[in-house]
Amino acid sequence: MTNYNYGELRLSPVWKGRDFKTGRFLKGHTPANKGKKWNDFMGKRAQKRSAKGWKNLELYRCKGGGANSGRPKKAVIAVMDNGEWKIFSYSVPAAEFVNGSRFNVVRCCRQNACHGINTDHRYKGIRFYFDTDDNWITKLQ
CATH code for 76-138? Predict the structure, then answer.
């Protein structure tokens, strides 16, 4: 009598480097054309067709934002306790005015932008508002 239960042969699935459900390549997969020259895996005609795309890359590649790139700057108004107010073209000069951080000035403007709840948030003793909000007009004495 022989007992074959203990000697069962089990093989793990062969790793192909690809997820067959999604079609994506898995981490650790090495492409078939790695380290090869074009002539090894691509014909002359295919090389010409592929090279045509380089012209489009040069034409439409991002060359930096330019002068008008980025988010448009918002004017900031500083309101002091004595009723004086000062307008700044954007948040950096306002932060330099109080020797503080631009991020905190903008945070104060955002918190003061919520209408009706609390519009008296301060940064370094000064209330900051965006120019587009009308809340700052009610704070003048």
Answer: 1.10.10
